[in-house]
Model the fold of this input.
Amino acid sequence: MPGINAKQRRSSCRWVLILACAAMLLTGSPLASTASAANILKMGLLQEPKTLNVWRASDRWSRKVVGLMYQPLYVRDPETLKLIPWLAAEPPQFDEKTLCYTVKIRPAKWSDGAELTSEDVAFTARFINEFKVPRYRSKWNFVKKIETPDKHTVKFYLKEPKAIFVSRSLTTPIVQKKEWTKLAEEARKTKKPLKRLLNEKIKRPVSSGPFVLKEWRQGTFLYLEKNKHFFGTGKKVQGRLLGPYIDGVIFKIFGTSDASILSLKKGSIDMFWWGIQPGYIEDLRANPDIELFQNEKSAIYYMGFNVRKAPFNDVNLRRAIATLVDEDFIIKRILQGYGIRMYSIVPPGNAFWYCPDVPRYGEGLDREARIKKAFGILRDAGYTWEVPPVDGSGKVVNGEGIILPDGKPMEKFTILTPPADYDPHRAMCGMMMQEWLRMLGIPAFSKPMAFGALLQQVKVRHDFDSFILGYGSLSLDPDYLRNFFISTNDKKRGWNMSGYNNPHFDKIANESASAMNRDKRRSLIWEMQKIIIGDVPYIPLYDPKLIEAVRKGRFTGWVQMLGGVGNIWSFCQLKPM
Amino acid sequence: MAAKEKYPMLNSFLEGWSIFKQNLLGKIGLVLLIIFALMAVCSYIPPWINPMYNPMTGVDPEITSCTPPSLRHWLGTDFMGRDILSQLLAGARIAFMVGISAAVMSILLGVSIGMTAGYMGRFVDTLLMRLADMIMVMPTLLVVLLLSAVFGQLSIWTIVLIIALFRWPGVSRIIRGQTLSLKQRPFIEAAKVAGASHFRIIFVHIMPNVLPLAFLFMTFRVTSAIITEAALAFLGFGDPGTVSWGMMLQWVWKTGHMFQAPYWLLPPGICISLITLSFYMLGRAMDEVLDPRLRKEDQTD
Amino acid sequence: MELRRYIVRRMIQVIIIFFVILTVLFLLFRWAPGDPVSMMVDPDMTQEDAEILIVQLGLDQPIGVQYFIYLKNFFTGHFGFSFHYGEPVVDIIWNRLPNTILLFTTSIILSAFVGVFLGKIASWHKGKKTDSLMTIGALVTHTLFLPWLALILIWVFGYKFGWFPINGMISEEVWLDPEAGFIAKAIDVMYHMVLPLFTLFLIHFGAYLLIMRSSMLETLKEDYILTARAKGLEEKMIRDHHAAPNAALPVVTSVGLSLAFSINGGALTETVFTWPGIGRELVSSVSQNDYPLALACFLMIAGVVLVSNLVVDVLYAYLDPRIRY
Done:
């Protein structure tokens, strides 16, 4: 009868609870950390890596973890940002006549003890080409032949000169031939080999890096332990003595920033590997146990136009809008001071490629001066108003009802932004642009839209007026400048989202892609920036600074670099205190 | 006596009202609801006073971060410097709109389907009622979630429509029952003999008799629509251009102010819970008014 | 005999409904304007890469073909590969299912038992302070907004007092420790389960309380109770041994009928507490346009709902001979 059972169950429940509490007290708090006895670094991640299959790892979380295991031939020096040999032994030798790059590989081992040879390098490149691995294919498909004259030398023969070979292709992670040969064979037998390979679950990645995966408990944590075969242990690379000096890394997965920052404050993690939002910064700064690092990012956030559609095909309208952007406001108020002005598509932190000489539309002007200047540009281009923003006496008033040069009033247009919680900065920029444009009588409407739907509309359907988007981590090689604006990329899902079409730009861009001389390439890249900022299909808005928080007292030796302190150098040099 | 017969509707209304008055819960519910309605109406006032109080795009010239309550912002500001009180008031407006629209749509749908099922009987009846069963057991929230993935982005009206599509089974059952009993009545037989088409019989003769009941019944079940919209917005699948209470909770949670801003965290949740409570209490009181059997409960012992 | 036929008929209905849901959702997803490939925002992904991926994922084939491939795989226990994880969907679900079952069933059992117990007491003290208090309490807790309640509990007990972890199911320190035995791990899970369990419990027990209360009030009017009283049995005996068991029946059926509501609550709770279960997986797969996983998670949940409704209907039909459809 239910009555009796309920009573019995209740009393037995009571006993279980008492026993559980007793056990808990006896075994000590569940948070008693055995891990801190050993020197294990605890990092907080906002989301779980989706995979440890290096070919599938397109999201940043997977890349963070995979990047500790699979290493490239060259990496960037944290101070000069120059490419320096990592798995390679010396800089690559280029033979112009045969278009051949020769790379020497340093003595190194994989985590299973096997030697890392030129076979592995050649295998990686051939693998990418054979199976057309996304994201890497475009960096290797112009390599026509690969030779391995001995165990420590690889020769790459290019079909045509390609400037990106050293900076993009030679920074591809190298995989072990042994690990992937069998998988490749099985994949070849199926109808969709690439799909098969991308779906492989790599349970025990073979690592050439400072750490190797020990355990992954889905949904909660990943544990990587020190790779005793790491080639860098005890060696000096570019003047830095490498470890790793820590025994392992635990990546804890938190669903929200709140949870991780709380954990950081409590001391259960040593670092939260994600930018700290401005709302937390003051609180963390005041905390004596927390240290904050500030670094620049190779990132750009911008407003893009649909240049295919009137009236955005009028460069004067775009220039006027660029003039109205109040960079000061964006940096001070929206980013709370944690950002730098972007005048070009290339971030200023990328010093070698950044062109300081581009037109700067609203720089140094206050609000009224900006309105007057924009008004001038539009008036000279034939625009009229119902109520001009600058009246007869030169006073600035609220403009209304702008009329296009052909006599028709401008239809209202939307500025698409990601939702406010996805990125409050972009959403706010959208709102501000709406206000600034309306002051000039331009009927702008900021519309937040679910991110996936936004991408669909902008990238696939090309059905939009303008948008505010960004790239959080641009590569240091400026080839993206070509990709974003070259007319051949104006396709469905292509990178030319604005529809910019300039044959002169196309010509220079293609030249820059095959300019093997770095300085020559730089002058071309600079010219490309001048053209783009002159035509402003994209208006650069800001480059946010990256603030990261680290717990003091346990480890020391974080290396600051463009992109934050979570870089391979930090992991190799962190020492327990 | 004559007056009672002359104005039957007014009479039953007054009768109902006297029963309702006795119910304490009902009165509390009504008061709360009136407060929320006032909030919804007042939501137009702050932006009219000053555009910086606009819940969605209000930019305070001096504040662009989360601040505690002050004279300028009675409930403080959110992470973008927008006034929280205006958001709360706008949320009341959205809640009513969502609740009432979803209720109206589901009533219309449920009444049509219920009448058709009851009147046509047999195969049509079985089919429609099986469909109703199937829909009734599905977790609405999860279905709308899936549909939002399909459509990419849902506007507030699409959300309301989909919620209504999952609420009609409850109404249709009641209406079907009513229709079944009405079907046997003489006036329907007379209409059939006179050659009226099925359509005419259903919509001209039966509907007027079942509609009042449907409205009374469903109007106090709007809460599930409000909660579903709030939960959707909370998870991030709402309409990003609408400020609802669920959306406010999403913002406070996702932007990491959950622990630092009780003035932002507490009001929206309290509102959602209270409006649900008030509708619930009102609904129970209405049940007693409508169904005489339930009244006896208070009169025994 | 009649019962058996009823059961068979209902089972066939369940199977048909399940496949209707599967088909409708499958078609909806394939016709959806978005596709997972566009979600991959990566300056390194060229449009050729995107096109290659679309072919590889089979998204370029006619819908009919895709549907039949899906059905074929479904019957062989293969639900496709997750677009996001790249792993077989079946593995992911298998991995998450126990966590959901643990949390969910514990919460239902706890709420039901406590609700029944308190409802019994409330009905017994009808009209008095205890009754009013319990009824109001049940009403208020039942109408609290679940995600908000979860946030409040995390804030108060996790952050301010620090008594409980603010999210997750396990602590890695315990699970990585080679010396930690089963008991330590079980306690760790229970420790993490307290807050989510409490959230679900608070929201749900009220409904059971109210149902039990009105059911008891009805039962107490029945003849056999009067007979028992006339026989001179003790009040408590009458209440607990005669009235309560029969009054509890509607509660049992209401557990099944309110399953949809509880499942919604489960998904929300898992998301707020980052409890690695099926509900949370469904929510995150939807936001990533990971159709195979989202579809499979939903089908799993729908299957559970349909089957439990079937069980409840059959139980009802078995226990109450008056009901036969």
